[in-house]
Amino acid sequence: MLKLLRFNARTWFFLGFLGCVFLLAMGAYFQFIDGLDPCPLCISQRIAILLTGLVFFSAAIHNPGQAGVTAYAVSGAVTALCGAAISTRHVWIQHLPADKVPECGPGLEYVLQNFPLFETVKLMLSGTGDCAKVDWTMLGLSMPAWTMIAFLMLAILSLLQIWNYKETVR
């Protein structure tokens, strides 16, 4: 059974890249079609998806040997796990009691124009009261929870390529 799923690392990295494209497309759909405005943590998660996708795309294009596959696999896992950490914080904020939710801050556009870059990044990673709002659920899980699951799957997919490369070379 596993032999049927044993594509080369290049193919798996490309499939991971397509998964990232799908996640970004879903974010764009929810924002532009359904009218759900992303909060700072949502935008941070999208950036992490983009970075993970770029690592996967680079690996697929490069088609490296064992050392390169290992480097790309670790890089892809690190970017995906950073995204999972952001998603975890987002889910945590969504589950805080109403009196513990951070204050809603100014809009991201205002912050980008009027605050130093360090303060903007701090806001994007710490979240605001806007992040506590749950606009969408599926099977009882919010969008950040599903994004966290996707990040964890991408990290696993990435790290499995180290093992996969050794197996496909034999």
TrEMBL record:
Gene3D superfamilies: DsbB-like. It is a multi-pass membrane protein. One of its GO terms (biological process) is protein folding. Residues 1-12, 65-70, 165-170 are cytoplasmic. Disulfide bonds join 39-42. Keywords: Cell inner membrane, Cell membrane, Chaperone, Disulfide bond, Electron transport, Membrane, Oxidoreductase, Redox-active center, Transmembrane, Transmembrane helix, Transport. It comes from the Bacteria. It is found in: Cell inner membrane; Cell membrane. Belongs to the DsbB family. Required for disulfide bond formation in some periplasmic proteins. Acts by oxidizing the DsbA protein. This is Disulfide bond formation protein B. It comes from Methylobacter tundripaludum. The gene is dsbB.
